[in-house]
Amino acid sequence: MSCQGNSISRHPLAAAVLTGLLLTSASVFAQDNAATNLDRVTVTGSLIPQTEIENHTPVLTVTAEDIQTRGFTSISEVLQQSSLTTGGLQGGQTAASFTQGAEAAGMFGLDPGYTKYLINGRPMLQYPALYNGSDAFNNLSGIPIDIVERIEILPGGQSSLYGSDAIAGVVNIILKERMDGGVLNVRGGATTEGGGNNIRVSGAKGFNSADDRFNALVNVQYEKSNPIWGYQRDLTRTNNRVGYSAQVPANDFLVYLPADNNAFVMMDPTRCASVAGQFGGTTVLGTRAAGESCGSAYGAGYRTLKNDKESSQFYSSMTFDVNDNFTLFADALYSLEEVKYTPGSGYTFWGSDLSFGAFYDQDTDQYMNLQRAFAPEDIGPNGYKDILNTDRNKAYQVTLGGRGTFGNWDYSASFSRGEYKLTERGFVRWADDIDSYFEDRVLGPVLGTTDDGYNIYSPNWGAFYSQLPAGDFQSFTGYTYNQSKTWQNLGRFQITNGSLFTLPGGDAGFAVVAEAGSEGWDYRPDERLMDGSVWGTTSVAGNGHRSNYAVTSELRLPLIDSLTVTGSGRYDAYKIADNTVDKATYSVGVEFRPIESLLFRGKYGTAFRAPTLPDAFQGESGYYANGAVDYYRCGQLGYAPADTLACPYGNESVFGVQAGNTELEPITADVWNAGVVWAPMNNLSVSVDYYNWKIDNEVDTLSSDQLLRAEYYCRNGQGNPTSASCENVADWITRDAAGNIEQIFTPKLNVARQNLQALTASFKYVQDIGRFGSLQFASNYTNILKRELQPQPGDDYLDLLRDPYAMWYYDAYAKVRTDGSVGWAKDRWTTTLYFNYIGKTPNYMSYLGESFDYVHPSGYKAGKWGSYTTYNLSVNYRALDNLTLSVMVNNVFNKMPDGQAHSYAGNIASPYNSSIYNPYGRAVYVQAKYDFGTKTN
User: Fold this and answer.
1) Distance between CA 293 and CA 286 in Å, rounded?
2) Residue 164 in contact with residue 70, Cβ under 8 Å?
3) What is the Cα–Cα distance from 49 to 510, expressed in whole angstroms?
4) Number of neighbours of residue 535 by Cβ within 10 angstroms
5) What is the pTM of this model?
6) Residues in CB range of 733: below 8 A, 6 or more apart
7) How far apart are CA 834 and CA 73, in angstroms?
8) Which string of DSSP letters, residue by residue, matches 649-666?
């Protein structure tokens, strides 16, 4: 049986807030104003069971009923639609991103990896592929949404309880633990604009012994979603129709002259008539300032805007009461998911400049380069549907443990093991095969070599300006297979005493947690991506592991009835390669209730993020730092670092190598929050909270400029204000005998810092309207008050609220974001209208012009896009006591970001900010839920 503390009377403030958290349930809509007695419960943000739902740390709770009535289709959508998500995100809607097959979320515009994600209070596995090509994060796909009990979102630094990564906050996804009976849920729908057809079937069954000592819950969920293609939306069907410049077709068949500023030249005697059948018969002659080419404006539509996805999940939770004081527990989650997508024709082409460079055409006496995009007709009968990339994800997480009591002490011990495997099947062009194909078919034999080393050809333009013969495309294309995985082991022991001793305000609570574990990351790209076999695409390998242990304690002191102080502290230590990285964090929280309906709260603490495995162990990759300044050699000629314009070494092309770094230090943060909660009656609560972060030691790749500046200071005996030490300079810069730079090494370093301030507010209200039922109102609001970032030591701070270029570069878009709902319940009916509001964001022209005041020569002005609001509507009808029928309409008014297209040029395929908006449009779903005497905990 369950072990619970004593039942005591709660303040009306907590009763009001609890009402607000549960008011989606029709039975709660009509609560009376009587005082409520509650057992002590443990909420995210504290280790100690307590009766006060609101404490010194704000918690935003999204219940299973909220998920259903607000129309959310996935865990990632719940979090991406949150008012706390003000920044942009990469994922399925972002073409050619590093993790197009994954679903990420974050808080306050900070990187997704700055949020700690938990399932049932235990850390989620990291995704094996890297966000933006370099950062560890959690893929929120693969969690069965129909078995979610609630999601608790805890903003602000929380490392003193939850350890590494909890800088922006903590998200705890709590799955159901017990069910009496069973439930079958079937849901299906589609978008009204086409594509995105979805079907989801889930079933859950509880198994309980006659004496109720054994309880088990088993859940299975299957879901299939079709992709949304660009050609299924007016906004993305073609290149931009309403931009600040006229629409132009893509350069699908292009010949250009590198010796003449890359001017275009038309070499097709039919002037594109020979390829008019490409892209569904839309290829035409296109004219730009640079010249003429053949192409289609409709090639833009041959990319996926939303992934094709097929997934299955299995979840089970079990408990067995050995006796009245000890319970064994276990839970297991397994997910199998296959995601398919393509970035489209804009990323499926061949070009001579990336193969063997320019060539000399003997017939025109000109140096030339060729570019050829591939149309669906080139590929085969099904076009781009035949060359989708596929990500196959397999993950499991299993926990075994026991919990019990002895005297006034509660204890629990558990061990968790998880593994996440990812196979990426990527469509590629084979370098030798595709180069040989165009050399043989188009360029012909080498007729000689120019004095400056370029091959001479007499191209067959008829072969270039023509559809590929059937089967030819497959002769130089294929697939690579990247294999990667992460794994995690975690042992955890906790003891808690909710009544350690008595103070004037009540019983003091105390908890101690000890943890130890290990985790690993292994990313193994296909060898052909590493050895140059693939045309136009490379990859970077990496692998490593780390072990860690931690000790956490929390003490809650109700000093008097109106004042409670809570302190927590944690020590974490990580073994990474031959280094030990450790960090102690702490927090002090205060709750002050001058009257029962009013709470003033605040907390100050520290947070950190340990060096991630990719940051420490990512392999080497090469690049060229073009336009680099050789400050040391300029200094030898008398030029100071601030005045190198006339220096002959002020515009160098330097080969560099970048990689992870096992000697990184933790990212650290000082975080505090202060707020007020007012609940004048049991059906109303209002809260306002302020947050402040000062984040140091952020990890980024050392810039080549910083390293070369450091060399100047070190070799001239001057003070070195950069992030590279003089020892680094000696190791990381290689020069030849003449003093020329041969190579630089720029690993990841702790170089950046930022300051962030935010204001959040929450409102909940329930109104009983008698025989007409009950009304519920709820809303959440976030306003980013300040965000500034210093990319490298000594750099000026970038204003991520007022500098549009920096805002786009760092995915910091919305200053204000709000969401909320209005619900009505009467008898067997419930209806909810949910809204999501994104405040003004910088338009694309302000990014191009690097200023809100920029005016393009066309007359189009930089500025901000207006606010953006979408609405979801749901209607639920309990047809029988055990059968509920639902209709959900997401994005009721079919809102699209088409108003953003005016700030993009006419050659842009996706003229909107895909990091924060999407063109999916209206979606309609129907659902039937049948309960077999279900009662859940």
Assistant:
1) 5
2) no
3) 10
4) 20
5) 0.91
6) 707, 708, 711, 741, 743, 744, 745
7) 14
8) TSSEEEEEEE---TTPPP
Rounded to 5 degrees, what are φ and ψ at 895? -70, 135
Query: DSSP secondary-structure letter at 161?
Result: H
pLDDT band at 245 (very low <50, low <70, confident <90, very high): very high
Q: Tell me the two tokens of residue 249.
A: 């077709």
> What does the mean pLDDT of the chain come to?
91
8 Å CB contact between 896 and 919: yes
Phi first, then psi: give them for residue 5, nearest 5 degrees: -80, -175
DSSP lists the bridge partners of residue 548 as 517, 574
Structure-token pair, residue 184: 């079958």
- How far apart CA 571 and CA 585 sit, in angstroms, is 6
Nearest CA-CA partner of 134 in 723, 540, 624, 743 = 540
Query: 98-107, 453-462, 661-670: lowest mean pLDDT where?
Result: 98-107
Tell me the one-letter amino acid at 15. A
* Spatial distance between the Cα atoms of 116 and 137, rounded to a whole number of angstroms: 9
At 21, phi and psi to the nearest 5?
-70, -25
- What share of residues in the chain are helix, strand, coil (percent, to 5)? 15, 50, 35
Question: What is the residue-wise DSSP string for 338-405?
Answer: EEEE---GGGSEEEGGGTT--EEETTTTEEEEEEEE--HHHH-TTGGGGG-EEEEEEEEEEEEEEEEE
| Strand residue runs (E) in 226-265 | 228-229, 253-257, 263-264
DSSP assignment, residue 720?
A: -
731 within 8 A of 702, measured Cβ to Cβ: no
Nearest-10 Cα torsion for 251, 255, 257, 262: 0
C-alpha Rg value of the chain to the nearest Å: 30
CB-based contact 300:904 (threshold 8 Å):
no
User: What 8-state DSSP symbol labels residue 300?
Assistant: G
Q: Do the beta carbons of residue 95 and residue 344 sit within 8 Å? A: yes
Split at pLDDT 50, 70, 90, the class of 355 is confident
pLDDT digits (tens, 9 = 90+) for 94-119: 766 778 888 999 999 999 999 999 99
Average pLDDT over residues 600-606: 97
Cα 782–Cα 786–Cα 791 angle in degrees, nearest 5? 125
Alpha-helical regions (H) of 112-221: 159-162
Q: Which two tokens stand for residue 570?
A: 């944690």
The answer to whether the beta carbons of residues 769 and 28 sit under 8 Å apart is no
Amino acid present at 699: V
288-316 tens-digit pLDDT: 989 999 999 999 999 999 999 999 999 99
Contacts of 259 (CB under 8 A, 6+ apart): 358, 366, 367
Start-to-end CA span in the chain (Å): 13
Taking the CB of residue 578, how many other CB atoms lie within 10 A of it?
Answer: 7
Tokens standing for residue 285? 């002659």
Residue 370, CA atoms < 13 Å, CB-side half-sphere: 25
Report DSSP state, residue 815.
Answer: S
Q: How many helices (H) and strands (E) does the chain have?
A: 17, 49
3-state secondary structure 38-50: ECCECCCCCCCCE
Over residues 118-152, the pLDDT tens digits come to 999 999 999 999 888 888 999 999 899 999 999 99
Please give the DSSP secondary-structure letter assigned to residue 225. E
- Strand boundaries in 702-773, DSSP class E: 733-735, 741-745, 748-768
Which long-range contacts link 455-459 to residues 24+ away (Cβ below 8 Å)?
455/356, 455/359, 455/360, 456/359, 456/360, 456/361, 456/362, 457/359, 457/360, 457/361, 457/362, 458/361, 458/362, 458/363, 459/267, 459/361, 459/363, 459/368, 459/370
847 to each of 744, 799, 838, 862, 899, how far by Cα in Å?
Answer: 31, 13, 19, 8, 17
The encoded tokens of residue 408 equal 């006034």
